[in-house]
Amino acid sequence: MNSSLRVILMTRSYEERARSLEEARWGEVWEFLSRHASGSFCHWLPHGFLWPAKDPGSSLVDGSITSAFLKYCVFPTRWAAHFGFYTHHEIQSQLLNEHNETEYRRYYETVRRLVPQSQLLEFDVRKHGWSELAGFLGRPSPPSGTPFPRMRVGTVAHSSVLWQLSPLKCIVFMSLMCGSVLVNFLVACCLSAAAVAAVEAVLLCVLGRLPFKRS
């Protein structure tokens, strides 16, 4: 394993995980719908315009459009097969393991076995905060008083954290997604109309030169 890599293992008891999954049932529905919509629209996005240079190690949950692009178009686990990162079988296995206590505990054991202790941070949101996280990553801590984002509070779905932290950015990103689809649709319509007109012109030209017998 590369010595420069850092792995953060979020620790949580299986009981809490199981209870959260049960309470967040409708949150999971929203999660699926949001990922389905974003996964469908991402192919239409002008990627080059949404990919400004990022400082290595900078936060992916910030006020930039790039972080939204990463969240909705690059990193979604349940859409990983769509982008070629994992096979459908591997994703199905992962979703099954989320509801299996033996596999859940085995996952933690596997990470601890594979990752050197000096490169692993077992992060518990109930005990740790910005100082532990920033110190482990070698990054400066946010300004004093910055709240630590809570990905799940009650039935809050994973997708809503960006809306909580930066609603304006998410609105802009969704507008870009929908706007890019509209622009691409209009361009496709124009190209289609131009192609039809070109074919008609060619046919008229060809037919005009053909000799026809008069009755």
Automatic annotation (TrEMBL):
It holds the Pfam family Sulfotransfer_4. Keywords: Membrane, Transmembrane, Transmembrane helix. It comes from the Eukaryota. The chain crosses the membrane at residues 193-212. InterPro entries: P-loop_NTPase (IPR027417), Sulfotransfer_4 (IPR040632). This is Uncharacterized protein. It comes from Alexandrium catenella.
